[in-house]
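ARCHIVE CARD
Drawer: 12
Card no.: 0347
Subject: one protein chain, sequence and derived structure
Cross-reference: see card 0346
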Amino acid sequence: MGTVHAKANQHDIGDSGGGLFVFEEPVEMGEEPIPKPTIKLDGVRARVDRVHVDGLNRTKDDIIKNTIDDLFHATDFEDVIVRAHKVRRALDSMGCFRDIGVFIDVSSGPGSTPEGLEVTFQVKELSRVIGGINTTVSENEGNLVLGVKMPNIAGRGEKLQAEYSMGYRSTSNFNVTATKPYPHKPLVPIVSASVYQQTHEYPWSGYRLLDRGLLMDLAFKSSPTTKHNLQWEGLVRETAALSKTTSFKVRESSGPQMKSILRHIVTVDHRDDAIFPSQGSWVQFSSELAGLGGGVAHLKTELQAQQNYELIEDIVLQLSGAAGVLHDMFGTEIPDHFFLGGPTTLRGFQQRGVGPHSDGQATGGKVYWAAGAHVYAPLPFLRNKNGISSLFRSHFFVNAGCLAAPDNGLTNWEWANSARVSCGAGVALRLGSVARLELNYCAPLKARTNDCTAHGLQFGLGVHFL
């Protein structure tokens, strides 16, 4: 009787008993390991007679049955292993379990067939209440997040979580979110609802923003690489002057406002890695309509794109671009505008340093475009792909962009010809799988009179970079 098992990440679920098919790393004995014979598993006929899921307490049987049903369609041993791996990933994506082990054994007992197998999933459910401390990254700012989560509340992957985050620039955020997945429905939708309060300070524009609102989100995938988010957001926004030196134009935007937004975001990601991709493309298009209630009405669209090419081994050329248009109908204020400049957008300029300013404070614009060409390479003399040097990349770039308001009197040619340009080089560092840090020496090549340039070293921290 043989046993095939897959171990969960970082935890050993069980030990195998020296069976016929055992997939483990070879044991180091100080000598050359004896080569194991190669067996073509697709030629071994097999079928699944039974599936057991051990360790269920709160999770409902119906959602488990729908998840494991695919195993009964396997036709050979290799197909069983592949389908068992897919089922394990599906169970893990439900967010109900912290450990999942897979055991495959020969079927025995009543109802067994000569080619039959029994597949057992050993699971450990998450605790009813989970607390944690982690960090996130927002507009060139790190945040400390304190959170508590109640997973799998009703036994079908539902989740309720509350988070409070603090940034080093007096930024704070509190939200309570309820999430309900539908893993077996077409397009695999996830429905969520959030109640939140956010406080942000923008010293480059001279105002403080306080938002209190409700966000409803429907997320689904139309293909494995295409994700959609349909959102409705209702909020009460209060803008206040940050100091006595805040310009009069910014003060005109102060006061409370009510806003209702319909938003659609579509993201298509074909990259092989989100932080340091070597090939593939990424495109995100967002459009929002404000005005179905409240005192603000506008149509806002934005497009961001990225394409990566591996020139030679480990040398990657990245081309990126972004553009946005804001059409104001009534009530649109400075916090709704686009802003450009800073280490995550147009390097070589200060945060929000490009475009219209009033008394040295950025007021934003209604039309913008930006583009960049980057070359990423391993650090010189440090090419160990498995060591700490694999987290670093050398970075060379040229950025260009423009931010303007159509009512500032510029013609189309003048607007297109007012591009700002910068170049530079530096080092990029991977921070986990969601963010990166950049330290670049920047040289602005072209700027306008009101722009705030940043010649020299510039530090950037973010999730998305131009």
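Annotation on reverse: Residues 1-31 have pLDDT under 50 and may be disordered. DSSP finds four helices and 22 strands in the chain.
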